[in-house]
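Hey, resending since the last one bounced:
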Amino acid sequence: MSIYILPIILLGYLVGSIPFSFLTAKYLGKIDIRNYGSGNSGATNVLRTLGKKAGTVAFIGDFLKGFILVTIVKSVLGLDLAIICSISAVFGHCYPIYLKFKGGKGVATSGGTIFALYPLVGVILAICLFTIVKVSKMVSLGSISAAFLLPIISLLLNTEKSFLIYSIIAGLFVIYKHKANISRLIQGKESKLGSKPIKKNP
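The structure tokens again:
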């Protein structure tokens, strides 16, 4: 197992770094998504800036890069190495080498890895996330809530210890990446779906 760890980490990082949200905004919207809204090159910012079609394409790309990669690694090398691959893929998404280490917040890619590792956990989290987003109109609130619930659901479903550890790491990391959103939520200033995107100053 040990001889595969470094290659798996590298593979996960490089695949995770593929900036599907950035590319979607570039080719469908003809913009650099980093200059709009939150400046984040993630699916939520694409959604708010360019609408549902572009946002859906960006989300699917970021989701599938985690799902397909981890599914393959899990089937070939087992759960533990798939979890290591998942961590590096999410890290790559958030700090992509192709975009000078400025990426998204890890929600879609984390979701893809979770569905690959434990589909039932993924389904429950997706229901929670989309319900909260539907009611609140705030994707960030749904994402933060799902990140918080991830280790709790994993524990209640008695998942493997390695996955439970991953769920804690991934949950805390996604929450950390949303620290600015949490601050705005507390202040009552968080943007809702449908609000007009703002172009950032160069």
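The chain has a mean pLDDT of 91.

Sorry for the duplicate.
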